[in-house]
Design goal:
Elements: H1 4-15, H2 33-37, H3 40-57, E1 62-65, E2 68-70, E3 73-75, E4 78-81, E5 86-90, H4 101-114, E6 119-123, H5 127-142, E7 147-152, E8 159-162, H6 163-170, H7 172-184, H8 196-201, H9 204-207, H10 219-234, H11 245-254, H12 269-287, E9 303-306, E10 309-312, H13 321-324, H14 339-343, H15 353-393
Parallel strand pairs: 6-7
Antiparallel strand pairs: 1-4, 2-3, 4-5, 7-8, 9-10
Helix pairs in contact: 4-5, 5-7, 7-12, 10-12
The chain binds zinc ion (ZN) (2 copies).
């Protein structure tokens, strides 16, 4: 079960989805392309069709077809050598359970580099691929790869970026953490958080260097990641001193100008920590693509099974019962029937609706110049009670 499935269903809900029965040479490209891409079955049919075309029409010296997962089964990666079109078999190292094409780029590049290739060109229009490749850059360089290019864009906007040069300019420390910054500020599986500009300028190399480098997510890593996200949320020019989202919410709510509405306040720390836990799971998967390790269980990292797909848990922290309790007592709140007393808290101004209504009436009367009469009325009662007592005793 994929963690992307829920997000895909959400997108289907907003745009709708058209499933194509069969994809062949004569099938035109659909005009409503958004509805085409929201269907997972369209994607795998297109991928299968691209494999057929590659075997039939493309005459490279060597052709490696990526492995893929179709209907829960692994279709192995295959190697063809031209000009004879000789099928030289499956490539075990490239046939895995990686469903995402972006992720499969890494083992493929690794395989190529291990075969002695010094210059690799990757065709991709996706930021995910670029940040992933930058993460593995040093590893590939150590295996004697010299150049890694990424081609993106179409037509006159086609560009080829030299990642080896970019890597030198950014520095090794930033290249190692860019993928973590990208995922934790929103990718296909984790919610969007701040802007990508802010994600880069908020010093991810300072905060995220150790994030997800092992299978354990401890409190210190969560706190450090939260501090990073506070910086991302408040923007690169912000001088906030907050280190948690709860502090940031308070700062936003109590500042003198531009106070956001309740709905626009930053999320609470408990919700953000759920987001960090999910980011940890995704980052851990992304940075261990070449390691032979057991995959983590998403249900231990902020997802839960529901309606046939994995949904993100909300991590809402409800207000303590004692904080939201009020009572409706008419008396003096002296027994445990009073909900405030049962919780061990003092009554607040929202309690005692009956008394409040009563006192309101008295106040209204006082304001309408019956003040003296009301007070005299009370005195009369007291006087007559005394009189009664006196009569009884005489
Ligand atoms: Zn009460
Ligand atoms: Zn009360």
């Amino acid at each position: 079960m994929s963690i992307k499935e829920c997000e895909r269903l959400r997108r289907v809900g907003s745009t709708g989805c058209i499933d194509i029965a069969e994809i062949q040479d004569e099938v035109p490209i659909p005009q409503q392309i958004d509805k085409f891409w929201t269907s997972a079955s369209n994607k795998s049919k297109l991928e299968l069709f691209a494999r057929d075309v590659a075997i039939r029409d493309i005459k490279y010296t060597t052709l490696v077809l990526s492995g893929m997962v179709v209907d829960g089964e692994v279709l192995p990666a295959q190697l063809f050598e031209q000009p004879e079109g000789r099928h030289t078999g499956d490539i075990a190292g490239l046939s895995g359970w990686l469903e995402e094409a972006d992720a499969r780029i890494i083992p493929h590049t690794n395989w190529t580099v291990e075969k002695g290739c010094e210059r690799v060109v990757v065709l991709s229009n996706d930021t995910d691929s670029v940040v992933l490749l930058l993460r593995y850059m040093e590893y590939f360089m150590n295996k004697h790869m010299n150049e890694l290019w990424v081609q993106y864009g179409v037509g006159t906007k086609r560009r080829v970026i030299p990642l080896h040069t970019l890597c030198r300019k950014l520095g090794a420390a930033l290249c190692q953490v860019l993928v973590k910054a990208h995922i934790s500020t929103g990718d296909d599986t984790v919610s969007k958080f701040g802007t990508k500009h802010s994600a880069i300028t908020s010093h991810p190399e300072m905060y995220l260097a150790n994030f997800a480098e092992s299978d354990d997510l401890d409190d210190y890593e969560i706190q450090t990641a939260e501090r990073y996200l506070v910086q991302v949320w408040s923007g690169s020019r912000s001088k906030t001193t907050a280190s948690t989202f709860d502090e940031l919410r308070l700062q936003y709510h109590t500042r003198r100008t531009a106070i956001p509405a309740i709905d626009d306040l930053p999320p609470t720390s408990s919700v953000v920590r759920g987001h960090i836990t999910r980011s940890f799971f995704v980052v851990r998967g992304a940075i261990t693509l070449l390691d032979d390790i057991t995959a983590l269980d998403p249900t231990n990292f902020g997802w839960s099974n529901g309606d046939g797909c994995l949904k993100p848990k909300k991590h809402l922290k409800r207000l303590p019962v004692a904080l939201v309790t009020t009572c409706n007592c008419g008396g003096r709140c002296e027994s445990n029937r009073c909900s405030c007393r049962a919780c061990g808290i003092k009554c607040v101004s929202f309690c005692h609706k009956k008394i409040k209504r009563l006192s309101k009436r008295v106040t209204t009367q006082s304001r309408s110049s019956h003040d003296n009469r009301a007070r005299t009325g009370i005195s009369n009662t007291v006087v007559s009670t005394f009189a009664l007592v006196l009569i009884i005793h005489t």
